[in-house]
Amino acid sequence: MSEVLTGGCVCGGVRFEVTEPPVAAGWCHCTRCQRRTGTPASASAAVAPGGFRITAGEALVTEFTPPGGSVKAFCSVCGGHLYSRAPDGWERISVRLGAVDGDPGIRPLYHQHVATAAVWQPLPDDGLPRFAGPRAG
User: Fold this and answer.
1) 5-115: CATH class
2) Residue 83 and residue 61: Cα distance in Å, rounded?
3) 90: phi then psi, degrees, rounded to nearest 5
4) Closest Cα partner for 15 from 54, 73, 60?
5) Residue-wise pLDDT tens digits, 10-60
6) Which of 12, 27, 73, 104 is the least buried, fewest Cβ under 10 Å from its Cβ?
7) Is residue 17 within 8 Å of residue 101, measured between CB atoms?
8) Cα atoms found within 13 Å of the Cα of residue 9, Cβ hemisphere only
């Protein structure tokens, strides 16, 4: 990756940057992602430790931690989804690909939580590996 990736929420109040290349990306079909986004799946990319920072609007970020899940972050003004992270810190963080400006330089490589995929939207026949629950690793 030669350039810093930038991104933000819908209203532009929150901005972030990714300074290290994303290490993996995938589609999540869990019920939480469906309800959080209103879509059948959410595309995210894992970021190397230390490779993510909020550059503007940190006070607008609201974090929600569902029982047994990762922290989900969104803009408190527009509701734009930004990232998820481990409850214990910032070492494991994934940015929402839809929040990245332009091409993130990575493509989803798998589908996870397909056991709870939306019944109203068939999984695409894209040849990507599928995992009934979370992808290992």
Assistant:
1) mainly beta
2) 10
3) -110, 15
4) 54
5) 999 999 999 998 999 999 999 999 998 899 999 999 999 999 999 999 999
6) 12
7) no
8) 23
Rounded distance between C-alpha atoms, residue 43 and residue 106, angstroms: 11
On whether the CB atoms of residues 123 and 130 are closer than 8 A, the answer is yes
Six token digits for residue 85: 């992270």
Three-state SS string over 14-72 comes to: CEEEECCCEEEEEEECCHHHHHHHCCCCEEEEEECCCCEEEEECHHHEEEECCCCCCEE
Could you give the CA distance from residue 94 to residue 109 in angstroms, rounded to a whole number?
14
- Tokens 């490779």 identify what position? 51
Confidence band (pLDDT; 50, 70, 90) for 2? low
